[in-house]
Amino acid sequence: MFIAMNRFKIVPGKEDAFEKVLKNRDSHLKGVPGFIEFNLIKGEESKEFSLYASHSKWESKDAFIAWTKSEAFRLAHKNAGQNQDLYLGPPNFEGFEKVI
Amino acid sequence: MFIAMNRFKIVPGKEDAFEKVLKNRDSHLKGVPGFIEFNLIKGEESKEFSLYASHSKWESKDAFIAWTKSEAFRLAHKNAGQNQDLYLGPPNFEGFEKVI
């Protein structure tokens, strides 16, 4: 099992707008081979930013990598450059493999 | 849904020893109210450290907080001060609530 997390630092006050963007986008994940589950999760809030992470679960790292090279991935991210006023910098990716 | 992650920086070369500690401990999580799932996951490896995270899923933040105040939690962490040679500093906790 593989967990892919992309961390977003959101400008304080822009949380609702960011959540709306994610809720309204089409993730194109349904039916992608090896895809298990997607969640948007929210972490700490500070004066500087509110932390969010896209958190997806995959059957394997290979399945995740294959998706990043697919048309479904391209479609899901085609508007990723929009709404730059919501973000403090680019997202920060981390991938994790299940040990136990 | 609530995700609790505790990040551990492990000294290079000590990965197997760390995994063994986690595999052999009794987490005392079975039957804890609101507990859904536990995984140990492994992230990036660098010259400085190997990143691991304990990753647990809970029905709610309240269920997680209640567990941290329970006897089951105390039992699961009673040996947490051991094996200090495996770690680069203390673990770093992050909690996340499901948005989508």
Task: Estimate the mean pLDDT confidence of chain A.
Answer: 95
| Poorly predicted tracts of residues of chain A | none
Q: Mind telling me which CATH architecture of chain A this is?
A: 2-Layer Sandwich
Reported for the largest beta sheet of chain A, the result is:
4 strands, antiparallel
Q: For the largest sheet of chain A, list the strands in their spatial order.
A: 2-3-1-4
CATH class of chain A: Alpha Beta
Strand content of chain A: 35-45%
Query: Helix/strand/pairing class of chain A, anyone?
Result: alpha+beta
Order of helices and strands of chain A: EHEEHHE
Largest interface: A-B, 23 and 23 residues
Oligomer: homodimer
- N/C terminus separation of chain A: 10 Å
Count of helical regions of chain A = 3
| Helical proportion of chain A, percent range | 10-25%
Overview of the molecule:
The structure is a homodimer of 100-residue chains. With 100 residues, chain A is α+β, with helices and mostly antiparallel strands. Chain A has one domain (2-97): Alpha-Beta Plaits. Helices cover 24% and strands 36% of the residues of chain A. The first copy, chain A, contains three helices and four strands, in the order βαββααβ. Chain A has helices at 15-24, 61-68, 71-76; strands at 2-10, 35-45, 50-58, 92-98. In chain A, strands 2-3-1-4 form a four-stranded antiparallel beta sheet. In chain A, a hairpin with a 4-residue loop joins strand 2 and strand 3. The longest helix of chain A is centred in the first third of the chain and has 10 residues, at 15-24. The radius of gyration of chain A is 14 Å and the shape is globular. The mean pLDDT of chain A is 95. At the A-B interface, helix 1, strand 2, strand 3 and strand 4 of A face helix 1, strand 2, strand 3 and strand 4 of B. Strand 4 (92-98) of chain A pairs antiparallel with strand 2 of chain B.
